[in-house]
């Protein structure tokens, strides 16, 4: 069988209205645990940025007229009736898919908010991305996609504390996976990998 590129495979699957999903297996599933740990840590960092003013519900699932998925967090401010639809991303690999899915969740959010007794008057999409040069570069390269999320940086953090005013269509925030002193932490699940010694009978010196 001849080798072919991922782009060719994607086109073949799209011709049959199918989607290609790739999985990476490493050390008996430890890669999944590492990614989950980083995602959970990003959620903790985001909660610190968001503050206690907001009532929050994590991992809210939905299945509405064939549209299904899970929202990382819904956060509601009862004073202004503002509902945040929060997407957490440790890595940004598919800008178009990320924005499209966030739009879908924002469109359904007001209805989902009723589950919690929230009277929603305004829905704001929020994209929280782990701080890294790579993630920032990817946002810069696709600014046309992310441009609708205009409330960023200090302005976004200030708005989260006082959401009475508008936020310019949506929020995009880079949040570091580090402690409050700015020191990088060893994230849960991260392991040191030692190279194997050459030769079957090597002994430590």
What does this structure look like?
This protein has 205 residues and is of the alpha/beta class. The chain has a single domain, classed as Trna Endonuclease, Chain: A, domain 1 (3-Layer(aba) Sandwich), CATH 3.40.1350. The protein contains 6 helices and 6 strands; from the N terminus they run H-H-E-E-E-H-E-H-H-E-H-E. A 6-stranded mixed β-sheet has the order 1-2-3-4-6-5, with helices on both faces. Strand 1 (55-64) and strand 2 (67-77) form a beta hairpin. The longest helix is centred in the N-terminal third of the chain and has 21 residues, at 30-50. Mean pLDDT is 82; it is low at 180-205.
What's this model, at a glance?
This protein is an alpha/beta fold and 205 residues long.
SSE succession: HHEEEHEHHEHE
Task: Report strand %.
Answer: 15-25%
The residue ranges in which pLDDT falls below 50 over 5 or more consecutive positions are 180-205
End-to-end span in angstroms? 47 Å
CATH topology: Trna Endonuclease, Chain: A, domain 1
Number of helices: 6
Largest sheet: 6 strands, mixed
Number of domains: 1
- CATH architecture descriptor: 3-Layer(aba) Sandwich
Please write the CATH class name: Alpha Beta
Structural class: alpha/beta
Overall 3D geometry?
globular
Number of strands: 6
What's the arrangement of strands in the largest beta sheet?
Answer: 1-2-3-4-6-5
- Rounded average pLDDT: 82
Radius of gyration: 20 Å
């Amino acid at each position: 069988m001849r080798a072919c590129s991922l782009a060719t495979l994607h086109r073949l699957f799209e011709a049959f209205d199918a989607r290609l999903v790739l999985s990476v297996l490493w050390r008996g599933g430890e890669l999944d645990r590492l990614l989950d740990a980083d995602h959970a840590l990003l959620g903790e960092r985001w909660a610190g940025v968001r503050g206690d003013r907001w009532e929050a519900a994590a991992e809210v699932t939905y299945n509405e007229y064939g549209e299904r998925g899970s929202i990382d967090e819904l956060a509601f401010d009862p004073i202004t009736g503002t509902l945040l639809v929060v997407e957490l991303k440790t890595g940004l690999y598919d800008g178009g898919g990320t924005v499209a899915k966030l739009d879908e969740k924002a469109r359904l959010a007001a209805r989902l908010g009723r589950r919690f007794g929230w009277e929603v008057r305004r829905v704001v999409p929020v994209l929280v991305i782990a701080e890294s040069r790579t993630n920032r570069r990817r946002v810069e390269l696709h600014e046309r996609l992310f441009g609708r999320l205009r409330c960023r940086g200090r302005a976004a953090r200030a708005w989260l504390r006082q959401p009475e005013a508008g936020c310019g269509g949506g929020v995009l925030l880079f949040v570091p996976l580090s402690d409050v002193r700015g020191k990088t932490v060893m994230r849960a699940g991260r392991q040191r990998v030692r190279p194997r010694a050459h030769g079957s009978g090597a002994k430590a010196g």
